Structures are given as C-alpha cells and as structure tokens.
C-alpha cells in the first residue's frame, strides 16, 4: 500500500466523519456551524486529493478504492444526521434517494467491473455537478438547522442535488441496460 499525500488526505477525510458527528451533537450554539466547517474541509479534501493524485502522478489502486468509499460514507452519515435533525419528508425522501442511488450505482459498477465493462459506467460530468450541489447543500443544512431562510436555501440545493442524482442514475442505468439485459456481449 502506497501512503502518498493524496491517500493520506483521503484517510483524513474518513477520520473527520466521526469528528463531524460528535461536534454537530455537542450542546453548544456554535456546534452546527463548526460541524459544517469541518464538513466543508472534508469536502475540499475530496477535490484536493484527486487533483494532487493526478498532478503529482500519484494515483494508486488503494486511493482509487478508498476515495469513493470515503465520499459515500461521509454523505450517508451527514444525510442520516440531517434526517434526525429535520425529521421531515423534505429531508428524508432526498436522503433515501441519494443513499439508495449510491448503493445501486456502486453495485452496478462492481458488477460491470467483474464482467470487464467498467468503462461503460465511468463517472460522468453530471455526477460531478451532482456532487458539488450535494456538498454545498449539506454544508448549509448542517450550518443552519431549523427554519431559517438559509436552511430553505440548503433544502432547495438538496432538491436540485436529488434531481441530479436521479438524472445521473438514469444515465448510468441507460449505459448499462443493454449489458444487464444480455443484449451486448460481455468480455
């Protein structure tokens, strides 16, 4: 295993997940904002580790495995926290869609890789836009829990992220559908 700087950043992101949770539930007025700032730092490391891995030519199999796992863990944990905090359909339904999509697409990618068709379900531009909208909305929802105007902005962002989540899922499924239905030969 090569523990280069990009991989250490990814590991750091995983270690920040329980820190975000603990800080968020602390009984202080600043806890929500502090957890949002930690989440923002963790989200930034997602971009930075990928950039550095490419720029420094330090991509590794370990990093390629851990990076998407770290992202999915972080987003799922934050969504579960927000479902607990907001306790309403407008957070719960997007959380179910986003987490469900991540499970479905992860399983699809794993299966496609097994049959030598991984490139058919590569990360798309829509997926990157979805991730940006998702991370931004989660920062806002963490920072401003409750009925403030900021939380409504975060909720609107989460709705946009959810629509992009569904759109990207459709793109992935459309690309994989012929293979799933046995209409295209696998290698």
Keywords summarizing the entry:
single chain; 187 residues; mainly alpha; Four Helix Bundle (Hemerythrin (Met), subunit A); 6 helices; 0% strand; globular
Describe this structure in words.
The chain has 187 residues and is mainly α. α5 packs antiparallel against α6 (149-180). It has helices at 5-24, 31-55, 61-86, 89-114, 125-143, 149-180. The longest helix has 32 residues, at 149-180.
CATH superfamily: CDP-alcohol phosphotransferase transmembrane (TM) domain
Largest sheet: none
What portion of residues belong to β-strands? under 5%
Radius of gyration over all CA atoms, rounded: 18 Å
Number of strands: 0
Low-confidence stretches: none
User: Strand-and-helix sequence, N→C?
Assistant: HHHHHH
The figure for the number of domains is 1
Give the CATH class: Mainly Alpha
- Helix amount: over 70%
- Termini separation: 29 Å
The helix tally amounts to 6
């Amino acid at each position: 295993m090569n523990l280069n700087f990009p991989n250490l950043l990814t590991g750091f992101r995983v270690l920040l997940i329980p820190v975000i949770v603990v800080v968020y539930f602390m009984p202080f007025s600043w806890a929500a904002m502090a957890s949002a700032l930690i989440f923002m730092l963790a989200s930034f490391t997602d971009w930075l580790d990928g950039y550095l891995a490419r720029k420094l030519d330090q991509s590794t199999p370990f990093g390629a495995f851990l990076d998407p796992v770290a992202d999915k863990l972080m987003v799922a944990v934050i969504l579960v926290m927000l479902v607990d905090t907001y306790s309403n359909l407008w957070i719960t339904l997007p959380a179910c869609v986003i987490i469900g999509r991540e499970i479905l697409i992860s399983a699809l990618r794993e299966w496609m890789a097994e049959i030598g068709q991984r490139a058919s379900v590569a990360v798309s531009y829509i997926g990157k836009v979805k991730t940006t909208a998702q991370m931004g909305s989660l920062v806002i929802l963490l920072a401003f829990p409750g009925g403030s105007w900021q939380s409504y902005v975060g909720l609107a962002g989460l709705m946009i992220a959810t629509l992009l989540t569904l759109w990207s899922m459709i793109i992935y499924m459309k690309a994989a559908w012929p293979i799933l239905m046995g209409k295209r030969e696998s290698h």
